[in-house]
Design goal:
Blueprint lengths: L2 H5 L7 H15 L8 H14 L2 H8 L39 E7 L1 H6 L1 E8 L5 E8 L8 E4 L15 E7 L5 E4 L2 E9 H6 L1 E6 L5 E6 L8 E10 L6 E11 L6 H13 L1
Parallel strand pairs: 1-5, 7-11
Antiparallel strand pairs: 2-3, 4-5, 6-7, 8-9, 10-11
Helix pairs in contact: 2-3
Length: 269
Amino acid sequence: MDYYNILGVPRTASPEEIKKAYRKLAMANHPDRTGGDDAKFKQISEAYEILSNSDKRNAYDNPQPNFNQQRQRNPFSGSPFEHMFGQGFSQQHQTPRNRDISVHADISLFDVLTGKNLIIQYHLSSGKLETVTVDVPAGAKHGDTIQYEGLGDVGHSKYPRGNLHVRIRIKKSRIWQREQDNLFIKKTVNIFDLLLGCVIIITTLDEKRLEIKIPQGTSPGAKFSIPNYGFPNIQSRKRGTLYVEIQAEMPKITDVDVLNKIHQIKNEI
């Protein structure tokens, strides 16, 4: 975690500058305030705790090489992105390196479907603003971390550059829902169309128009599945399923003659 970046100060910032930045950010993000962000407030407090203490700041600025990273199973093993994914899943290091840098990347569900090139900016320990382009592959999930080797910090010239870890955050959609590689949407259909049967049109995330035949007498809550219209699996590249859940729309009828006709039809049924 880049504490200097969190507080928005350069590595050369004085204790007064650090305190000033902390107070401003803490006030703006305090969870008791309207619009406050509890998670961000905790990050800000953690950053200030380290950087406001001279001993802790010195230890943070001059990390000791770690030769004892444990081998762990990489959940992306076997995929085309095996070398990129899995913060903490790298092999045991033979030589020390500069510290890693972690940032967030916000993408949409459409980006998950197609993949996304992003321009990422972050500060190095020297205070320099680094700008890089990263590729988020199609099928990435919320919380995935992509590792880019050699794009981390470069504070100590005698050590290799650290790595950049980009943590994926997927923006929520009001219309679409995702479960693993499957995509879900709800479609409202007039109750009479459910009784008589009809054809509805679904516009997919990538702007394709799909026709779905609703059989006569379909009940509200029924789900229709369309294979290969979900998200691509990051390992197999096969696409999941699109599920369309039918909801009923009740017409507002105030005309007495129409209501009498409905009563008549109900009695005949």
